[in-house]
Amino acid sequence: MLISDLPVRERPRERLATLGSSALADRELLAILLGTGAPGAGAHTLAERLLARFGSLAAIGRAHPSELASVTGVGPAKAAVLVAAFEVGRRRGGADTAPTVAEPADIASVAGPVLRGRTRERLLVITCDRANRVLGHDVLSEGSADRALLPVREALVAVLRRDGQAFALAHNHPSGDTTPSREDIEATARVRRAAVALGLRFLDHVVVTDTSWRRVPGH
Question: Where do the CATH 1.10.150 domains begin and end in the chain?
């Protein structure tokens, strides 16, 4: 969907003007910086591609211009704008510090911008270092309106690929009901056992909706 297709009150610039920058999701902030999209993809889509590729705003801010430009639809000009914006933030003393996962609420905070507003279930793995600082996140699967698969092997591979020491899981329920399913609980237990076997710390698993979140029990 193009930004111009959204109702005026839901467009990033208008939301920023009325609600303030802190109310915007990561992809909305990126969409404002990008300004325009590319053939076949709006600015929101380009923002999602950047987040999917690099995992977080902090990682995007550390990326080389050529890495940013290589994302389909971004190109050198938009990459230069992004690099300049993050550099301005650094020079004014803005913290470029990755968030830390200390409790389930932190997982929901990191995962929320990626999972909210979706019409299909999406499963996210959040990789952390030894001190539980977020190194990045990866979308593991995207399913139907009421189910996303939890591929255990792919989750662990994603963590190891980022040289992680710990990780968390999050997925959304488009229905708005945060109640974990039996499959959610059983699959989470399998992930925990596999993590122990590889010497990784499994932090937690949460279900996220557009308005709330809940920890998946039993692990």
Answer: 3-91
With cut-offs at 50, 70 and 90, classify the pLDDT of residue 139: confident
CA dihedral 173, 176, 180, 181 (to 10 degrees): -70
- Token representation of residue 190: 């399998």
- What fold does the segment set 3-91 form as a domain? DNA polymerase; domain 1 (1.10.150)
Check if the beta carbon of residue 49 is closer than 8 Å to that of residue 69: no
d(CA 161, CA 146): 29
Q: What share of the chain is helix, strand, coil (3-state, %, to 5)?
A: 50, 20, 35
What's the pTM value of the predicted model, to 2 decimals? 0.58
CATH 3.40.140.10 fits 104-215, yes or no: yes
DSSP secondary structure, 82-138, as one string: HHHHHHHHHHTT---PPPB--SHHHHHHHHHHHHTT-SS-EEEEEEE-TT-BEEEEE
Q: How far is the C-alpha of 73 from the C-alpha of 39, rounded, in Å?
A: 8
Per residue in 112-129, pLDDT (tens digit) is: 988 888 888 889 999 999
- As a whole number of Å, the end-to-end CA separation of the chain is 38
